[in-house]
Amino acid sequence: MELDSLVAYILVWPVMSAGILILLIVSLIRDIIRARREGEELL
Length: 43
Hints:
Helices cover 84% and strands 0% of the residues. The chain is mainly alpha-helical.
């Protein structure tokens, strides 16, 4: 492997992890807002 491809491979994982984390946080916020609007508890 060339150095450039190795660096690109290593840098892809934090970007993918950040994307998944943002997706989970947005989903959680939407669930909280929906629960408050409907008067329900999350747990």
